[in-house]
Amino acid sequence: MAERQPVIENVFHKLGGHRALGTDVFSDADLARVVHRGIHLKVLDHLARAGFSKQEIYALVIPARTLRHRAARKEPLTTEESDRVVRLARIQATAEDVFGDKAKANRWLREPLGVLDNKSPLELAQTESGARLIEQLLAKIDWGAAA
User: Fold this and answer.
1) How many C-beta neighbours within 10 Å does residue 6 have?
2) Interval 104-121: pLDDT, tens
3) For 24-61, how does the pLDDT look when each residue is reduced to its tens digit (9 = 90+)?
4) Is the separation of the CB atoms in 26 and 18 below 8 Å?
5) Quick one: three-class SS letters along the chain?
6) Looking at residue 3, what is its pLDDT?
7) What mean pLDDT, rounded, does the chain reach?
8) How far are the Cα atoms of 79, 86, 143 from residue 97, in angstroms, in the given order?
């Protein structure tokens, strides 16, 4: 059995594990396959348990009205929405790994930062390029560089 990388393992658990994803995830390639297939809506409940509010999920993943329609039709998230779910879980897992404390990491994700033009890391994480910027910033913090 392959060994999961710490952040990948944390993402896997944040999204509900095998039961919610329908498969095991050991690598970025496995996550990409899950995203491409489309993630089941129940993963949003796991994302909420991981610390994201319904309002954040509506703003960062899927609007409430779209979610209601998708649920009524029993459809999974689209590839784009699935990608957003994984992106949020990855950013949160990375922040938790860097700060070593879930509460501190989640506060940091929501704080406006001067280096980000007074936007919060979560605001920037709405796009892939913004998420990469946040991951770079977290790497600098992890290495002790001024951020």
Assistant:
1) 12
2) 999 999 999 999 999 999
3) 999 999 999 999 999 999 999 999 999 999 999 999 99
4) no
5) CCCCCHHHHHHHHHCCHHHHHCCCCCCHHHHHHHHHHCCCCCHHHHHHHCCCCHHHHHHHCCCHHHHHHHHHCCCCCCHHHHHHHHHHHHHHHHHHHHHCCHHHHHHHHHCCEHHHCCECHHHHCCCHHHHHHHHHHHHHHHCCCCC
6) 61
7) 92
8) 26, 16, 12
Pairwise CA distance, residues 133 & 125, whole Å = 8
Residue 34 near residue 28, CB atoms below 8 Å = no
Q: Which residue has the tokens 């990375």?
A: 94
**Euclidean distance between CA atoms 1 and 3, whole angstroms:** 7
The yes-or-no verdict on residue 147 having pLDDT over 60 is: no
Nearest to 105 by CA among 144, 134, 133, 128: 134
Counting Cα atoms < 13 Å in the Cβ hemisphere of 144 gives 0
- The residues with which 113 forms a beta bridge, in sequence order, are 119
Query: 51: exposed, middle or buried (C-beta count within 10 Å: 0-12, 13-18, 19+)?
Result: middle
Q: Alpha-carbon distance 7 to 118, whole Å?
A: 27
Amino acid (one-letter) located at 140: K
